[in-house]
Amino acid sequence: MTDRSACEHDRFEVLYEQHYPxxxxxxxxxxxxxxxxxxxxxxxxxxxxxxxxxxxxxPLPWLYATARNCLANELRRQQRGERLDSRMRTExxxxxxxxxxxxxxxxxxxxxxxxxxATLRPKDQEALRLIEWEHLDVAAAATVMGCSAGTFRVWLHxxxxxxxxxxxxxxxxxxxxxxxxxxxPARTEIxx
Length: 192
What we know:
mainly alpha; 73% helix; Arc Repressor Mutant, subunit A; 2 domains; single chain; Rna Polymerase Sigma Factor, Chain: A
């Protein structure tokens, strides 16, 4: 915990008292009253940690920008939850088909995917992991990789093709026009 001067405490207290209602309204118009309190609290927590970066003359635009970033993080979290719910519903409807597979087959499939993935270049591995394992969208994955979304799409497309070829080679098959191996389990299937 950092040791703050009385002047910094006073400055933050004035900042909070003057601008909390505006930040709360800003967030409430976007996510509703309940989540808005969390967004406002997170915004002012960041303001406290970065008090030296908060403009003294007009802090409200800085606070709005910070709240906007907090909102974006919250919306991404909600979207991940919705995608997870959707996947769970999909898996539940496919339950009988998946249940008919032996655990040994599932393990063998996973090991085949991991072995094929290990043969790829590190950049290809990371692109596939960001999309398939971390469930990031293309724009977020591109940010992680330090490139544009368009460039990342090309990398991802090529990485998926290379993985499909590696899986085909491992299984001894060359007749996979769809670009996805038949031995991929449903959860690790590489979508075209």
